[in-house]
């Protein structure tokens, strides 16, 4: 299984034709990152791709059509209403031509128009008319990216199956720092190579648990935790994109089911345990990302518990829940390659390695959940992955990017 990272493997002077014959429609919208599209086009072509460039009117303010024509070696398409362009390759023909539509940079405006299904310029019309897979490389100010409207639009496009490539975090042209930078041309090239290349997890079945569990106290109250499910869902989404058949066993979260993922909704640790034990033996890999409650109330009241005047205290007796990942790892027949997570606030390596041993796991992914902005209910995380003979740190990144690196590591270890 090939290692997964978004650094292009093609660094030697004889450039491998990893994209030979692939037809890429590069849609450029009006952001400062548009200037990088000349380099992007050149690098795609060097690897054998044919690139047809389409620009929005605003994109022309950042890079000239003449430049893009020179690097792509093809006339650049600019307008829906250009009789000459329509006569050479009409917009429907262009939409059908592409093996991949790559929108880079994709501004907040383009993303919003795509979400609304608008066809008010050539590029948005082509997206509507194309059957090809679509990759979106967002690029915008970090605050615009964080805006709930943009996040909502990005989520809606992902749900429709569009691939979100980036953005990256860092210094922005406007001076801000944060998520919103377009991925670098070579990172986009590597993602194209990955997209067209062999799927490293093809034919592998992976079961993943995600989100929190809820342990009922009475019909209206429960004990739970802050897990949003984002980390587990990112792993499920990425694994499916890498060709795996994915079963996602999810606690109660408000996230959309990733494309090509079979989802099983559960509530309590006991119901998650039951679903995991039912499905794990038919999967080759089991990833336990859920934040499972270690204990549950020993009794669930039939009726809502009433506040009383005779005491200011209330005691709930708790009993231990089954340890799901340890139960899966203890399977004597059809035991999958089993990976746990460890949410720690101190002495991370010692506790994580302790869980690796005690639960008989093949790998464990430790996150320091005491770090603000990482771990529970955040978009970013950092992991330190341990296995019996080694370990690797995965630096802070958004959960989607981290999932990609983690699955690359799992694929490598699973082979051994
Ligand atoms: O969901 P997010 O908001 O994106 O947050 C992600 C996360 C912080 C929840 C995730 O990265 C993470 O760390 N998940 C594991 C949380 C946890 O419960 O850790 P733990 O150290 O308490 O448990 C160790 C392992 O045992 C975990 O794999 C856990 O899934 C598993 N476990 C724990 C208890 C139990 N009864 N059954 C289990 O299977």
Structure description:
With 416 residues, the chain is of the alpha/beta class. The chain folds into 2 domains: 181 residues, Rossmann fold, CATH 3.40.50.1950; 197 residues, CoaB-like (Rossmann fold), CATH 3.40.50.10300. The protein has 14 helices and 19 strands. The strands form 5 sheets. Strands 12-11-8-13-16-17-18-19 form an 8-stranded mixed beta sheet, with helices on both faces. The protein has a 5-stranded parallel beta sheet with strand order 2-1-3-4-5, with helices on both faces. Strand 1, helix 1 and strand 2 form a beta-alpha-beta unit. Helix 1 runs parallel beside helix 9, helix 5 packs across helix 8 and helix 10 packs across helix 14. The radius of gyration is 24 Å and the shape is elongated. The termini are close together. The N terminus is likely disordered. Bound molecules: ligand PMT. The site of ligand PMT has 28 residues, from helix 10, helix 12 and strand 16. Keywords: Decarboxylase, Flavoprotein, FMN, Ligase, Lyase, Magnesium, Metal-binding, Multifunctional enzyme. Its cofactor is Mg(2+); FMN. It comes from Vibrio algicola. This is Coenzyme A biosynthesis bifunctional protein CoaBC. Pathway: Cofactor biosynthesis; coenzyme A biosynthesis; CoA from (R)-pantothenate: step 2/5; Cofactor biosynthesis; coenzyme A biosynthesis; CoA from (R)-pantothenate: step 3/5.
């Amino acid at each position: 299984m090939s290692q997964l990272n978004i650094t292009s493997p093609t660094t030697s002077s004889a450039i491998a034709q990893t994209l030979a014959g692939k037809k890429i429609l590069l849609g450029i919208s009006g952001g400062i990152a548009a200037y990088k599209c000349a380099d992007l086009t050149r690098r795609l072509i060097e690897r054998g791709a044919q690139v047809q460039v389409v620009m929005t009117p605003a994109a022309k303010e950042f890079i000239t059509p003449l430049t893009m024509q020179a690097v792509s070696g093809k006339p650049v398409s600019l307008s829906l209403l250009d009789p000459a362009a329509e006569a050479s390759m009409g917009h429907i023909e262009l939409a059908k031509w592409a093996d991949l539509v790559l929108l880079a940079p994709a501004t907040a405006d383009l993303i919003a128009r795509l979400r609304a299904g608008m066809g008010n310029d050539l590029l948005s019309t082509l997206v509507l008319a194309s059957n090809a897979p679509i990759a979106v490389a967002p690029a915008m100010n970090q605050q615009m990216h964080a805006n709930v409207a943009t996040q909502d639009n990005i989520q809606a496009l992902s749900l429709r199956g569009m691939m979100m490539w980036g953005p990256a975090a860092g210094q922005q042209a406007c001076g801000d720092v944060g998520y919103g930078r377009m991925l670098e041309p070579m990172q986009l090239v590597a993602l194209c190579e990955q997209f067209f290349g062999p799927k490293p997890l093809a034919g592998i079945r992976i079961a993943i648990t995600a989100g929190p569990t809820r342990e009922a106290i009475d019909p209206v109250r429960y004990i739970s935790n802050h897990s949003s499910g984002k980390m587990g869902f990112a792993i499920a989404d990425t694994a499916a994109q890498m060709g795996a058949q994915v079963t996602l066993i999810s606690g109660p979260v408000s996230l959309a089911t990733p494309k090509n993922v079979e989802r099983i909704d559960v509530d309590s640790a006991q119901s998650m345990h039951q679903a995991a034990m039912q499905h794990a033996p038919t999967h080759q890999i089991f990833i336990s990302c859920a934040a499972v409650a270690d204990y549950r109330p020993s009794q669930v009241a039939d009726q809502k518990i009433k506040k009383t005047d005779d005491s200011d205290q209330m005691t709930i007796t708790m009993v231990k829940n089954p340890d799901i990942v340890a139960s899966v790892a203890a399977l004597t027949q059809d035991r999958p390659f089993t990976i746990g997570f460890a949410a720690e606030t101190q002495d991370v390596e010692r506790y994580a390695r302790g869980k690796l041993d005690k639960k008989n796991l093949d790998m464990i992914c430790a996150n320091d959940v005491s770090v603000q902005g990482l771990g529970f209910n955040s978009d970013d995380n950092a992991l330190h992955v341990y296995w019996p003979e080694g370990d690797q740190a995965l630096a802070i990144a958004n959960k989607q990017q981290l999932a990609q690196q983690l699955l690359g590591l799992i694929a490598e270890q699973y082979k051994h």
